[in-house]
Structures are given as C-alpha cells and as structure tokens.
TrEMBL record:
<dbReference type="InterPro" id="IPR013078">
    <property type="entry name" value="His_Pase_superF_clade-1"/>
</dbReference>
<protein>
    <recommendedName>
        <fullName>Phosphoglycerate mutase</fullName>
    </recommendedName>
</protein>
<dbReference type="Pfam" id="PF00300">
    <property type="entry name" value="His_Phos_1"/>
</dbReference>
<dbReference type="InterPro" id="IPR029033">
    <property type="entry name" value="His_PPase_superfam"/>
</dbReference>
Length: 328
C-alpha cells in the first residue's frame, strides 16, 4: 500500500508523512519473547512531609471563627495566627429560638381542608398512609381549600411571589396545589415538607371518633409532656413538646433558607399550627388548643394576629422558654 502510493506521485500530506516515516525509519522488531531478567528502572521514592496537626487545627479554627462570639481578650499581636474578623453570634442565622426576637419573613398559616377520614368523623394520624388517596381532601375539603386560596389572593399574600410549604400528607399537598393555581404561583414554588409538618400522632386514639380529641387536649392543659397512649400500628404518640420541637425545626429551616420572602405553611391538622403560633407569640403551650384552626382557615402571623374570638385565657400566662411554661 505504501509503495503504490509513492509511485503514483500524488500523495496527500497525511499519507506523505506516513510514507516518509515508513521509508526513513525502520520499525524495531516486535519482541516475540520477554526476558524475565529484563531490568526496569527503579521507582523513584516519594518523600511525604509530616502532617502538621497544629497547622490543620489552626486552619479549622479560623474557618469556624466567624460563627463565634467576639473574644475581647484575644491579642492578635501575640497570636501566631493571622487576625480573624469576628462577628457577633446573633448574626449567625438558623439559630432559631421561640419566641423569636424578629422574623426574616412573613408567614401565613393555613390548615388544609377536611380530609376523607375527617368527613367520616375518624381520627387518622398514622404517617404510613399520609400520601394515600384516603388521606386526600373530601368534597367539602376541596371547597374549603379553594376558599383558603381565594382568601390569600384577596389579601395579596402572593402578589410579590411566595413559597408554599405543605406537608407531604395528601390533603395538605392538594390544598397547596389549589392555592398555587388560584394565586398564579408556579408549582416549582411548592416545597413539600416530609416530616416536620406531619399531623400530630395521636397513638391509641387512631381510628377513634374525632370528638375524643377533647380528651387529649385535657391532658395537654396539664403538661406539655403528656403523650397519648401508645399503639403498635406505627402511629406515633406525640406530646405537645414533641410537636413543638418539629415546628421549631421547621421555622429554623425557613428563617435560614429565606429572607424577606412570603411563606405559606400548609398543615394537615390544627395542632401543628396552634403549637407553632403559641410558640411564636410566647403563649402557654398548654392552652394551644384554644387557638384552634378550622379546616381551610387562613391566618397571617404576627404578634397581634390572634382573632379576638380566639384570645386564649393563656394570654395571662407568658411562656418565654417554651415548651417549659409556668404561670407568672
């Protein structure tokens, strides 16, 4: 092939390069055997530097120092480390405490409409079936969700955009979709919450009549740590204090993730919202049920957002360190 190419006299540059190489260079013979005694160059030795643990720790300390409170006793002139700019610990967002000094966002609290189980008068709080169609909105519940969405539109909740945070529970997510559709909000602004907004687990009350919830609220008024009786079907039995931990974690996430935004929290039940609101305004959590939300109710949160007809007797009892509340 190479010889015929040379003879023709018309050779492409690429073929010429190949031909020239072939004519001027004789390729080395391919070895048929490899000698076991073939010597290989020695692998160069790699010298690793010893680890300077003090330097590593110093670098780590420097990286986390901005989140620490300023130390007036630190003398940078005597310190072997470069000076680090310190910021007050109060500026570190995400360290959320109830009741908050201020909020970075504005919040609307919405209870989803009536569920299929609630329409039958049955308690259903087992998270195992929270995404089931049976946990979806009833016919009445859908109408209540539409009213909630129209109410939010009437007051301009999403005029400048908003984020909708529903529980992943079927009825809460359905309500969120209705709210988004009526208020012209893209579905990408619906952020499902997978655990912190689950309906309060009522333990052995699972499957009982809705009216029996009053027994649980009677226990809540005694102590925030009293749990409903347990059951072995996977339904949690949560005290007020348990729910308080969840909703506080939720607020910590929201206050860290957003700033000067509008957030609509959609809960499948009332207890999440009443415990959250009581904590936010510093009311006695033992009386949270007096702030109860009706299905489809919308409430804008601010310290004076509790409707007059909902003013609890606990307004006399401030709770500055929930869930440990005592009368003052």
């Amino acid at each position: 092939m190479i010889q015929s190419t040379v003879a023709s006299g018309s050779v492409s540059p690429v073929k010429m390069l190949v031909t020239t190489f072939a004519s001027n260079k004789t390729p080395p013979p391919y070895p048929t055997t490899v000698s076991a005694a073939t010597s290989h160059p020695e692998t160069p030795k790699v010298h690793l530097k010893s680890i300077d643990r003090r330097r590593i720790l110093a670098s780590l300390a420097a990286s986390i120092t901005p989140f620490l409170a300023p130390n007036p006793h630190l003398n940078h002139e005597e310190s072997p480390l470069p000076p680090v700019f310190l910021f007050p610990s109060a500026d570190a967002r995400g360290l959320f405490q109830m009741p908050p000094v201020r909020l970075s966002n504005r919040y609307f609290l919405v209870r989803a409409g009536e569920s299929e189980f609630e329409s039958l008068g049955i308690i259903n709080t087992n998270p195992v079936g929270k995404t089931s169609v049976d946990n979806g909105l009833s016919k009445i519940g859908k109408k209540q969700a539409v009213k909630a969405a129209l109410r939010l539109k009437e007051i301009g909740a999403c005029d400048n955009g908003c984020w909708i945070w529903p529980s992943i529970t079927q009825r809460a997510y359905q309500a969120a979709e209705i709210i988004a559709a009526i208020n012209g909000i893209n579905r990408s602004n619906i952020v499902p919450e997978y655990s912190f907004l689950d309906a309060r687990g009522l333990g052995a009350y699972e499957g009982k009549a809705l009216q029996s919830v009053s027994e649980i609220y009677a226990s809540d008024s005694v102590s925030t740590n009293i749990k409903p009786p347990p059951i072995n079907d996977g339904t949690p039995n949560e005290s007020v204090a348990d729910v308080f931990v969840r909703v506080t974690q939720l607020m910590s996430i929201l206050e860290t993730q957003y700033s000067e935004d509008t957030v609509i929290i959609v809960s499948p039940d009332s207890d999440n919202l009443t415990i959250l609101q009581a904590g936010l305004v510093g009311l006695d959590l033992r009386r949270h049920s007096e702030l109860s939300f009706e299905p489809g109710e919308v409430r804008f949160f601010d310290p004076s957002s509790i409707p007059t007809y909902k003013q609890p007797a606990s307004a006399l009892y401030k709770c500055l360190k929930p869930p440990n509340c005592t009368r003052v």
